[in-house]
Amino acid sequence: MGILNITEDSFYDGGKYRNEKSILEHVERMLNEGATFIDVGAYSSRPGADHVSEDEELKKILPIVELLLKHFPNIYLSIDTFRSQVAQACIESGAALVNDISAGNLDSKMIETIGNLSV
């Protein structure tokens, strides 16, 4: 699994992939190096990170899901979110799975949502 954080304050990569060109180059490199899934996150779980509203998370992540699926139509996208509405919107846009760091404990609708989506 390759990781693509699109947050400015990610502890993993510091948000260095924030424009289309750098995102596409990074994802292509990960796929060429053998990644089967690309895990996309738009909310930093770094201790002390700024809160991001659900609307803001959706505004950041949905265009990236669409961009990646357009350029890599056979890609498997994992969505790193603890919010059921973000998960649902991304799966409905073509993502393949949900990576919830809280295991459904931060959004009471997450387990039901992923069950209904069969992911």
Describe it for me?
It is a single chain. This protein is an alpha/beta fold. 40% of the residues lie in helices and 14% in strands. It contains four helices and four strands. The protein has helices at residues 20-32, 54-71, 84-92, 110-117; strands at 2-5, 37-41, 76-80, 97-99. Strands 1-2-3-4 form a four-stranded parallel beta sheet, with helices on one face. Helix 2 runs parallel beside helix 3 and helix 3 (84-92) runs parallel beside helix 4. The protein is globular, with a radius of gyration of 13 Å. It starts with a strand and ends with a helix.
Specify the number of helices: 4
* Strand and helix order: EHEHEHEH
Low-confidence stretches: none
Q: Give the termini separation.
A: 17 Å
Number of strands: 4
Topology:
Elements lengths: L1 E4 L14 H13 L4 E5 L12 H18 L4 E5 L3 H9 L4 E3 L10 H8 L2
Parallel strand pairs: 1-2, 2-3, 3-4
